Prior knowledge:
Layout: H1 2-15, E1 27-35, E2 39-45, E3 51-57, H2 63-83, E4 87-96, E5 100-109
Antiparallel strand pairs: 1-2, 1-5, 2-3, 4-5
Amino acid sequence: MKKLLLLCACLLALASPLRAQTAPPADIVVVRIQDYRTSAVLFITRGEGKTERVAIDSKGLSLDKNMTAVSEGYFKVIENLYREGYALQNSSSISFQGDGGVTTYLFIKNH
């Protein structure tokens, strides 16, 4: 009788669907930076339909002032993400010959 009950319990356990154990969803922010010679455009995406565009224009400035203006613009965006609790997870970049490039950053905030 014990063997029959054990067999039924095993069959019942096998018949029930498995529950996947998953981590709670993470908040993800994707930052894409399109660099040009005298400016940059940042696209900050927090989800579908939730993209913010930040333009940094330094036309007419010397090379040093141009680099300073663009770097300070990057700093503001990244500093805000860190203040919100996001951490840099990954980055990648593509360079275009003579026309700048695109850099993508992935920030994650775990719950």
